[in-house]
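Reopening this ticket.

The earlier resolution said the output was attached, but the attachment link was broken on my side. Pasting everything inline this time so it's all in one place.
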Amino acid sequence: MGSRKTFSSSWEPAQSHGTPRTGILRRLLKSRTAIVSLTLAVSIALIALTVPLLPLQDPLLPDYDQMMQAPSSGHLLGTDLHGRDQLSRLLWASRTSLLVGIVATFLAVSAGVVIGGIAGYSISFIDSLLMRISDIFLSFPAILGAIAIMAIFGPGRQNIFFAIALFTWPVFARLFRSTILSVKERTFVQAARVLGASNMRIFLRHVMPNSAGPLVAYTSMAVAGAILAEAGLSFINLGVQRPNPSWGMMLAESMGQFEQAPWLILVPGIAVTMTALAFILLGVAVSSVIDGRNERAYL
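Inline output:
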């Protein structure tokens, strides 16, 4: 009962001892999982942003005299099948993965918030219609749906954004709708309505801020899912196209070379795993803080 009280009070309007957001941020900063995962995610993002400024070799330029070289001072992570520097390709690929993860998730969240908000505040017919449409998309496994979209429209980064977002927005729509239905029945929302506040003001001032917590938590996990989806699509040659670097493409090109050059598979595999894990654990930490539960309950 104590944990439920913590959850409820954390999202009520500001009290004299501080705002709800301040309390949540304070608890989040005390979470080891949040600190470690946020540090890792920010580090990867900073690397992706500063890659053009780093003194790296051209990730697209082949050197057939240096094919499959083991890690050395000249090539810290070795070279691939075409003699290209593995470290350079790894860091440049991080830009692709993060861009796809962030943009695709942003599109999905935007669509989900709009549709979920309309459903949560509409008459039952519109609500039911929108939820049935979301059920149609949810009935397809996301990765299979993305593969079908990419097969129809062709590979390319822009199509990856659309393909991933198309099968991700229903989760955000349902999550936001369910949170709205709960929050708009709270005492402070009813009080604002009695005082004559418009539906738009109630939505922006009370419902939206108090419904954002679960969205933030799941958004972090959705970024991880989008990164893994991009790697999977690139692995089967439906994502980023050669010779542009992508972690999934790097794995695909190295298949069958594990015994001769294990670094070709281990390096991009570890990179995509650690990046996805960082965003997943960050979402777990945010969920645990919002619910007032121990992080281990989610792991």
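Reporter confirms the inline version is readable. The mean pLDDT is 83. Residues 199-235 form the longest helix (37 residues).
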